[in-house]
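User: I'm writing a short report section on ligand binding and want a predicted complex to refer to. Could you take this sequence and 3-methyl-2-oxobutanoic acid and write out the structure as tokens? A short remark afterwards would be nice.
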Amino acid sequence: MSTKPTSNDHGTGVRAAATAAAEGDRIIIFDTTLRDGEQSPGCSMTTPEKIQVADLLESMGVDVIEAGFPIASQGDFEAVRAIAGRVKESVVCGLARAAIGDIDRAAEALQPAARSRIHTFIGTSPLHRQFQLQLDQDQVHERVAASVTRARSYTDDVEWSAMDASRTEHDFLFRCIETAIECGATTINIPDTVGYAYPEEFADLIRLIRSAVPNIDKAVLSVHCHNDLGLAVANSLRAVQAGARQIECTINGIGERAGNCALEEVVMAVRTRPDQLPYASRIDTTKIMQASRLVSAITGFNVQPNKAIVGANAFAHESGIHQDGMLKNAQTYEIMRPEDIGLVKSSLVMGKHSGRHAFKTKLKELGYELGDNALEDAFARFKALADKKKEIFDEDLVALVDEEIATGDQTIRFVRLLVQCGSDIAPKAEMTLSIDGVEKSAAATGDGPVDATFNAIKALYPHDVLLPLFQIHAVTGGTDAQAIVTVRLEEDGRTVNGQSADTDTLVASARAYIAALNKLLTKRGRHAPAALSA
Ligand code: KIV
Ligand code: ZN
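Assistant: Sure. The structure tokens for the complex follow:
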């Protein structure tokens, strides 16, 4: 029976969560940011970036990290293998179609893992069977048995997914689930692959599976909801109320098309309303903001300001009546505390006289712990920023550190930029770069100052790539605000994102372009450059 809370006392959620955990009513959080999330167009990440995300997911208590789709590419394989070799607490999962080659490749990639899971799937709906697979029900059913059996020969943690489950005939779905469990699947995942289900309908499906599949008690029931109708979180929560115990989700809700169920939303919904969902997850919610910023910085996918939980306005109170209420008692308009998701407003004010120690302490308060080299680089850039900008806001530091974190190999380094532009002159950029440690300079013109800047980079390091995205955002208000620039480059189906923040928009643009170019070099391998060679 659910009990209505008498107030939205912030402590209630935490206490109920602890009780639920003690009773073993735990929700397993399966994060697929690195697999389904990475599948969204333009979202691709390099292996070092995936490792950073995996490390953070592990430290925030994610139960299962789906690290990639090893058969998809050599890069995916290497990323899964690298993550499998370092993550100790979370289960590391690799995706495989219902094919021997896929499963063997996933097993090979997962081989170094302390705890591994093979996740194998096949389309079960009439549309998928007929048009994608050209298989009848019996043939699909045979593949379910063969794929789960093969996966189980490598690990005793096997997840089976019925792709497009929400549009599959019930009797056929139940038959496949029963067989998958008989063959050793320990988790059964029910995807709403095209985000078509309605919450009540999806909950009914979960209830039906629990009553109609005789061996269902031998597996954990999982859900994987897409957000095409904006219902991914609602469907996942209703599924839990109906008996599902694993939720598949991604940071910031990234993923195919409209994305997946957002981890931060589903986790905070569970934590905030224990009267509706008396369960607990293992997630350290104070790391949510950091994870959101990291994924956004790496992918170049900005979070919309009004996005639940992690949007810039999620805890901002603008109207007079709300501000008045907040001043009297924060609970009048706040159902969660900003600090619960790691949003801290610290009293340490940073400026040009702040030293290394204060800088490090401040970053820690903001949820960052950098290694010695990254800290030194970030500190040098902070000092340079403090020379240019009177007030340094937390957002400025976050932008600066995110850029430091997302910077990988730097074959090409920004040294200097001088741009001439205005109403009566042709834009001209004079650029100095350090390429493999050697400084080179060149000048170029263009259709505008940004075009001239990018042309100067091309003059110094000839290459031929597409630029599908160039985006500028102000970090804070004011004309002295830093600009965050995101540049996306694409070549032969490989996509990379570079991001940089600076008070000078053109400098930020040049740095963002160079960051993306360096990632492209890493992705394609240094020694096979046709279009990218200098
Ligand atoms: O959306 C989907 O069906 C998937 C499966 C591979 C689980 O991502
Ligand atoms: Zn999916």
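A remark for your report: The radius of gyration is 25 Å. DSSP finds 18 helices and 14 strands in the chain.
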